[in-house]
């Protein structure tokens, strides 16, 4: 395993058996234009990942070897830990209300799961792709920054070599080569998704209704059994792994119904919105409204403690310099399992609830080729015959919002991995081999040659996505996100279900709760 320095240094390695030369770029810089092409076999593979070595040292291992103390504390009204969608929303709300905020972010840039890459002038998402609720808060931020979201192009399902658009229409379902019993079951499932009273909502209620409790207690697979359609279960297992981080067995019916109800297409009034390269444009726009001196990237918060006057946060930068920040309140917008390690005096029950949250290792694989694999009006192609190696293929050219003709086409595959494969994301050779293997199998499935690919990029997410496991919504999530003294929680995993909407809603809600507590 490499000894990571989290610097912008490059490592050239030849992977045996894959014919791929790769570069390891530590950290998550957003532009690959600085990378020199290397001699050797194609396709060239670039590795990027969330920074993990400093978090492992300070948060997991509680080691401060080599640390240097800065004895001059910083002071502010509210500290916000994490500059993803939740943290940015909270920081902006507090700044607008006149409070002095300080935003601490471990990565080298803001945006959380909404960062993007760029190949051949085509932006593509490393994580968050689109949103479905064009809320008043998002409209206000877009208006303030002159940002305009794009209607997200439609999806399609690749069924026995044929692309099927408007998949959930009666005509498309009837065209499937499955039994009539299955077709009828899929129509019944679709009709449930169109009934607002049958679809539970987020943010997660503090107390669930009986119906919501039943959906939370069931696995998504148990729920779907009533529709007697193996094809439906195969298709939605792809969706669950790609969008919810776990299989149908690992995810609950509550989240499946809520998330997938927005996926059945604009034909049914289910509109989605995006930006070139995914959600990065929105998150950058929010960040632009916050004074830049109030945003400290490359700063890992590793210890938080309630005090009689407020709260103290210890953070460390890349130079191994530890600094204390004193404030009246703090909002945690990182993953709950990290909070369990960072907060010194948590009640045992709350710590247990935090540790019950599940976060799969997750890799997103991106590749560019001159050949157009799918029509440019399709954003996402679902591949039920390519399980288990490929769930869906995102077509970034369709997301650019311009009719410009590109010489290259960028495609992405998002894939949650089993928990026991987490170490793959920390090992350069294993990570590169994993990414190239997935793309090789996908290209073979499509009947295309790997030689047509000019560049591959693999991004490793260590703990970015919360799995909405059965039982997570009825107690564990609420307890894990409960206020603890001067410490508030505003992350997407407050709902044990990661999405743009949940992240923003919890960021706004936690900041308003802090304002109320300060008044």
Question: Can you offer a commentary on this structure?
Answer:
The protein has 15 helices and 23 strands. The radius of gyration is 23 Å and the shape is globular. Helix content is 29%, strand content 23%. A hairpin with a 4-residue loop joins strand 1 and strand 2. Helix 3 crosses helix 10 and helix 11 runs antiparallel to helix 12. By secondary structure, the chain is an alpha/beta fold.
Short description:
With 519 residues, the chain is an alpha/beta fold.
Mean pLDDT: 91
Low-confidence stretches: 1-19, 29-41
Percent strand equals 15-25%
**Outline, from the CA principal axes?**
globular
User: How helical, in percent, are the residues?
Assistant: 25-40%
- Derived from helix and strand composition plus strand pairing, the structural class reads alpha/beta
Strand order of the largest sheet: 1-2-3-22-18-21-20-19-10-11
The number of distinct helices, counting runs of at least 4 residues, comes to: 15
How many angstroms separate the termini?
51 Å
Assembly form of the protein:
single chain
SSE layout and pairing:
Elements lengths: L11 E4 L4 E5 L19 E6 L3 H8 L7 E8 L2 E4 L3 H12 L4 E4 L11 E4 L2 E4 L10 H10 L4 E2 L2 E6 L2 E4 L4 H6 L4 H14 L16 H8 L2 H5 L5 H15 L8 H8 L12 E2 L5 H9 L6 E2 L2 E8 L4 E7 L3 E7 L1 E4 L3 H7 L5 H9 L5 E8 L8 E5 L9 E4 L13 E8 L11 H18 L7 E9 L14 H5 L6 E3 L10 H19 L1
Parallel strand pairs: 2-3, 3-22, 4-16, 5-6, 5-17, 6-13, 10-19, 17-23
Antiparallel strand pairs: 1-2, 7-8, 9-12, 10-11, 14-15, 15-16, 18-21, 18-22, 19-20, 20-21
């Amino acid at each position: 395993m490499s000894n990571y320095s989290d610097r912008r240094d490059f490592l050239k390695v030849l992977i045996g058996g894959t014919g791929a030369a790769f570069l390891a770029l530590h950290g998550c810089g957003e532009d690959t234009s600085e990378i020199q092409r290397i001699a050797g076999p194609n396709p060239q593979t670039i590795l990027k990942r969330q920074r993990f070595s400093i978090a492992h040292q300070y948060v997991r291992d509680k080691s401060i070897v080599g640390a240097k103390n800065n004895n001059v504390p910083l002071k502010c009204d509210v500290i916000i830990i994490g500059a993803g969608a939740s943290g940015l929303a909270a920081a902006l709300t507090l700044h607008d209300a006149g409070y002095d905020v300080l935003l601490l972010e471990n990565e080298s840039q803001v945006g959380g799961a909404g960062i993007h890459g760029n190949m051949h002038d085509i932006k593509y998402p490393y994580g968050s792709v689109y949103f479905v609720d064009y809320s008043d808060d998002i409209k206000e931020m877009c208006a303030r920054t002159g940002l305009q979201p794009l209607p997200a192009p439609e999806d399609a399902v690749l069924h026995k070599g044929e692309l099927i658009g408007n998949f959930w229409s009666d005509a498309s379902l009837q065209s499937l080569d499955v039994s009539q019993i299955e077709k009828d079951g899929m129509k019944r499932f679709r009709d449930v998704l169109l009934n607002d009273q049958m679809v539970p909502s987020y943010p997660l209620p503090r107390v669930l209704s009986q119906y919501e409790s039943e959906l939370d207690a069931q696995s998504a697979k148990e729920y779907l059994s009533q529709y007697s359609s193996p094809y439906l279960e195969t298709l939605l297992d792809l969706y669950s792994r790609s969008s919810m981080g776990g299989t149908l067995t690992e995810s609950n019916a509550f989240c499946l119904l809520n998330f997938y109800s927005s996926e059945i297409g604009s034909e049914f009034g289910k509109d989605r919105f995006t930006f070139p390269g995914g959600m990065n444009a929105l998150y950058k726009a929010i960040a632009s409204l916050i004074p830049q001196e109030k945003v400290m990237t490359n700063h890992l918060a590793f210890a938080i403690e309630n005090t009689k006057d407020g709260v103290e946060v210890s953070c460390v930068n890349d130079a191994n310099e530890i600094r204390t920040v004193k404030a009246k309140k703090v909002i945690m917008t990182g993953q709950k399992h990290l909070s369990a390690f960072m907060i010194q005096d948590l009640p045992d029950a709350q710590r247990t609830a935090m540790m019950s949250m599940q976060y799969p290792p997750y890799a997103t694989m991106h590749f560019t080729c001159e050949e157009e694999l799918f029509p440019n009006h399709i954003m996402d192609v679902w591949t039920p015959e390519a399980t288990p190696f490929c769930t869906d293929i995102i077509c970034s050219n369709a997301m650019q919002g311009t009719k410009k003709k590109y010489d290259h086409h960028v495609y992405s595959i998002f894939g949650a991995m089993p928990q026991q494969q987490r170490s793959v994301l920390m090992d350069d050779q294993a990570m590169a081999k994993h990414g190239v293997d997935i793309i090789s199998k996908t290209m073979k499935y499509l009947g295309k040659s790997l030689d047509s690919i000019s560049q591959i990029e693999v991004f490793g997410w260590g703990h970015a996505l919360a799995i909405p496991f059965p039982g997570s919504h009825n107690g564990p999530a609420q307890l894990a996100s409960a206020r603890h003294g001067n410490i508030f929680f505003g992350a997407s995993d407050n709902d044990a279900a990661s999405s743009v909407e949940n992240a923003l809603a919890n960021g706004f809600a936690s900041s308003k709760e802090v304002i109320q507590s300060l008044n």
